[in-house]
Amino acid sequence: MVDGDMTTIGIIGAGNIGSNFAKAAIAKGYDVVISNSRGPETLGDLMSELGAKATAATAEDAATAGDFVLVAVPLKNYREVPVDPLVGKLVIDANNYYFERDGQIPALDNNETTTAQMLQEHLPDSHVVKAFNNIPAKDIPTDGTATGTENRRALPIAGNDANAKERVTALLDEFGFDAVDVGPLEDSWRVERDRPAYVVRSNADELRDRIAEAVR
Questions:
Q1: What is the CATH number of domain 8-213?
Q2: What is the sign of the dihedral through the CA atoms of 132, 138, 139 and 143?
Q3: pTM of the full predicted structure?
Q4: Which residue among 70, 116, 141, 172 sits deepest, i.e. has the most Cβ atoms within 10 Å of its Cβ?
Q5: What is the pLDDT of residue 5?
């Protein structure tokens, strides 16, 4: 595990990304506490699939229980992520902007901010790192390979806190992926939807090239 004292991951959002991330985490020995917007009683089928190391919970309880937390919710719902239980915690932001689902968000349409900056502003005392937004969800538990594997898949990260990014880099390595640091959250637009690197399988060198090709 990334840190022997960090054995429980809270997951807010039990859709494709959250559920597949949970599978990968459980395979690496983590306990997961996972929530959705409809209530833990609606997660019975997922709990049966995930097994004994998974617990269904409210978003508040998932945020409280997690030593660190993955947020993977429709972007239009990001303000519903609980704030107080996440103070001081690492929060991995896997959100993406789909205007067809989320409605038009002018600040994003006008390139005034990024999805990750929006979550960081909502969670001012948390350490937000953008990650896991740039891979098809089904590949998270299946496409990882051992450290040093030739042509190993790489995923981008972005964040304002170096220690938080180090922890996410270690988690990615544990899950079987190299990490490429895009920079601070304000640069995470480079790996958002419709950019050259978005959900394209890349090794680290290829990913750096595709990130560099991105234009606003």
A1: 3.40.50.720
A2: positive
A3: 0.96
A4: 116
A5: 74
